[in-house]
Write a structure and sequence with these properties.
By secondary structure, the protein is an all-alpha fold. Helix 1 packs antiparallel against helix 5 and helix 4 packs antiparallel against helix 5. It is elongated, with a radius of gyration of 15 Å. The N and C termini lie close together (9 Å).
């Protein structure tokens, strides 16, 4: 694979962000939300696995070889799981709800870390392809 152009990298990041919107939005069930605060729970693992699968599809669509795409997707799933768990643990321990400003700070930090992961994945792709 030749080094991707700036536009191609932006398309990759967009694909990952659209995947994120789908799996942190309409495809995230109450079961997943309620279970993300318990380390090792099936709901949190399922949620992160869906993110990893979505990333794998985005990376494959972008033309990344399957083995490399699988490694990046697995890394995304692991990071996603731990970011969600940490946010949920903090929010629940502090008993923050959507009526508390700190809840929104925690959610903003969570989402920023997820999107930073996608930028890092794109940077890895650029480095690998160069």
């Amino acid at each position: 694979m030749s080094a991707p152009s700036a536009l191609e990298i932006l398309v990759l990041v967009l694909l990952l962000q659209l995947k994120h919107a789908a799996f942190d939005g309409p495809f995230q069930t109450r079961w997943m939300i309620d279970g993300k605060g318990r380390f090792g729970s099936l709901p949190g693992i399922t949620h992160a696995a869906l993110h990893a699968a979505g990333s794998l599809v985005a990376l494959l669509l972008f033309g990344i070889p399957a083995a490399f795409a699988a490694i990046l997707a697995l890394a995304d799933g692991l990071v996603h799981y731990h970011v969600d768990f940490a946010k949920e643990l903090l929010v629940r321990r502090q008993r923050w709800t959507s009526r508390d400003s700190y809840f929104w700070w925690a959610l903003a930090a969570d989402q920023t870390l997820h999107h930073t992961t996608y930028i890092a994945m794109a940077a890895i792709v650029v480095s690998w392809a160069s």
